[in-house]
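pasting S-layer homology domain-containing protein for the record, 718 residues
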Amino acid sequence: MEAKAWGRLKNADKIVEKLLDRAGNILKEESDLRFSDLQGAEWALGAISRLRGLGIITGYDGNVFKPNNPVTQAEALTMMVKAFGLEDEAEEIAKRFGGFYAKLDENDGDDDDEGARFLTSNGTKLPYVPAPTRWALGYVLLAVDQGWVDISEIQPQKPASREWIAKVMVRALGYTEEAESKTDASLPFSDAAAISRDAWGYVAQAIEIGLFEGYPDNTFRPQKPVTRAEMAAILDRFVNEELPDETPYHVEGRVSAVSGSSITVKLASGREVTYRISPDALIVFGKASGTVSDIHVGDKVQVLSNGQGVALLIVVKSKEDSDEGEIKQYRGKIVEISTDSEGDTKITVSVEGQGSKMFKLSDDCEITGVVRDLGPDALSVGDQVIVEAEGDVAVRVTVISSGSVSGEVYGVIEGIALSDGGVSLSVQERSGKTYSIRLRADVRITYGTLVLAPEDLAPGDWIVARLQNNLAYQIAVTSRAGGEGQYILGVVREVSLTGTGTTLKVEDRDGHTYSVRLASNVRVINGDSVLTPSQIGFGDTVRLRIEAGTCVEVHITARYEGPKTVITGVIVTVSTGTQGVSITVKQDDGQEVTLRVAENARITYGQESLDADELRPGDKVEVRVQNQEATEVRVRQRGVEPPFGDLGGSIVSISHSTSGTVIVVDDNGVRYTVPLSAQVKITYGTQELRPTDLRIGDAVRIKLQNQVAVELRITKRG
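structre below
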């Protein structure tokens, strides 16, 4: 069973540091980590011995551990506090409240712990801790203070049940919110009805992250007391996962040499460490102890030493434990992504039919969608994935579909679903990764300067969706699918009325002009009014629905109100097409407008006259507009002309209009506004990206042709 959830802890590095500091003090003094009474609990031999070496468990007088005794709530909380490196804090709390509890004994006598009792000290609500468990006072109070356990749930002398441990451990590991969302989760156990309602979600979460498994008879036995050996095994899974592979007291690697008195271990870094094997060393093989002669070159081992080259505990991992040398495939959902103290990325996957399993991504782990390579940053919680792993090291991760997403998604709409919950889109990126996106009720949808409704979207549309927790709050349609049953959105450039009907010429935001014949029964709508085709005017902004090659519906989204006299702003793109030169201006209010420059337009910069093709991105302009054409352009300030050749710097602004534009500041602080070619090649290492993948702060090198970026290499992500 895998149980790996340290990644949720914000202070995991500090926990490891405290564990190793304490281990150093103990292991320098101890030469024998055995307890004398582990018969019948050999299955937990390695866990118990390791936790003893790390100072998490101490046992009883006479060098006994009593592994098969039920662990009391006080004992369980004490082990947990030590495993989390908080014993100093526990001792401080014990000093603070010890006097209060001592006075309680004087006044109340030594009562047994029969049910939860609440106490108050200077307004602070405290749990009742009877005298026989007063040794654990600080640990119990700290657990309450940390929110691991509620005062009403504390009975320190009582055996800790499986569901009680599930609740406390899930809270301690930071999964309270997830657990409380699983109160109605389905549990497969035949005795699930025996699980307390307030523990139901915690048991479900504990199963998901691998804290517990059911029994072979398909029961969970929620009220069964957890034994001391079982508690040690639960904690050891987490401690063992978080401990670095190479420390002064703990290493993990493969045996490269072994003799009767020494062992050499080759670490993942390539370094070899040789240990003298203590005469009292405990050697563990799976669920039993062994001897040095049972160790072979190539075995994977974990060694706990005294920091001075003497091995005190050697745990030989079985092939079943390590799964190494064989690539196995796991299918499931990512429930956690974390980075350990060594900077390695780890993903926890809820594997179908197996519970949770954590994988470390190998340095050369291949991460792909169903079509092309992705990068580690493309992974997100909720992704459905296929993991190919050697042991617990992932060598390949294939993303089948995405889970919860925040940020931007650029892709093509594959499907649209309507339900009582609203509108949902199935969107596929170029990588092949598919997202299920639900539209927020107030979602803003635009296509150029047009505002659309959700029902205007259609399969085949390419969109950029901005999301928060898989809810789209803004969608920009970058290109329409066209074709049967689709829409054309644009501005009316001509209305032709003939004896055979009406034909419209409509120009979309990309400058494409469509000649569309209206059906004889065409429906023309403007707000709440139904119009006739003759009432469609030049310059009106329209949405046309096409069926069988003709327009069956005209929705006028904006009436042409005549020329806007003057706009001011900054040119973000300049493009040349069959219709001449067009400019996109980002106005002072942040809105962008694309205008064709009239053939006879007057363009000036101070006393200098310019041609339209001399305008450039970054120019601050004042534009006189008539009939959606720029008839006069006054350049108030020139944008810095990008140099020829390579340009290096950092991106400080990004515009995704048309092909896109970036503003780059070079090492000298000079700002350049650089338009991107429609075929621009963007790379980051071996990954090929899109303009929408660019980030402010990216360090880039840009190859230019005619002052347009044709290749952009990201050297460092912002």
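DSSP finds ten helices and 37 strands in the chain.
Residues 87-108 form the longest helix (22 residues).
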